């Protein structure tokens, strides 16, 4: 249909189109520079302090997690309605990605 024209964008074109200045284009596998830690991500989503989030995190094997009960309790008690919705979305994501047996 387009002959021998390659219509697949290259990494450099994606970074320009998306204005992704933090992407390292010289790597075989791309990764974002300065990726926030799990703790920082949870602080951002929940709006809670570093101390509170650190107290909620549990180690399960090689991974860190926050128990769904803690998220449920936070949904019920959080004063910010938008943060309640964000925490609810996080808990749904956890149930879909990691269902209980």
Structure description:
This protein is mainly α and 101 residues long. The protein has one domain. Helix content is 50%, strand content 6%. The chain has five helices and two strands; from the N terminus they run H-H-H-E-E-H-H. It has helices at 11-18, 38-46, 50-56, 68-77, 81-97, and strands spanning 58-60, 63-65. Helix 4 (68-77) packs antiparallel against helix 5 (81-97). It is elongated. The model is unreliable at 28-32 (pLDDT under 50). InterPro entries: DUF7745. Pfam families: DUF7745. This is DUF7745 domain-containing protein.
Radius of gyration: 19 Å
Within the largest sheet, what's the order of strands?
1-2
Mean pLDDT: 75
What's the helix-strand series? HHHEEHH
Low-confidence stretches: 28-32
Structural shape:
elongated
Structural class: mainly alpha
Give the termini separation.
49 Å
Helix content: 40-55%
Sheet of most strands: 2 strands, antiparallel
Q: Number of DSSP strands?
A: 2
Strand content range: 5-15%
Number of domains as seen in the coordinates: 1
What's the number of helices? Answer: 5
């Amino acid at each position: 249909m387009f002959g021998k024209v390659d219509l697949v964008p290259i990494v450099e074109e994606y970074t320009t189109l998306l204005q992704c200045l933090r992407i390292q284009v010289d790597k075989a596998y791309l990764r974002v520079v300065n990726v926030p830690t799990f703790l920082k991500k949870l602080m951002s989503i929940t709006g809670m302090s570093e101390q509170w989030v650190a107290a909620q995190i549990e180690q399960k094997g090689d991974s860190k997690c926050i128990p769904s009960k803690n998220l449920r309790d936070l949904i019920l008690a959080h004063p910010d309605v938008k943060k309640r919705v964000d925490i609810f979305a996080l808990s749904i994501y956890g149930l879909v990605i990691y269902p209980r047996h």
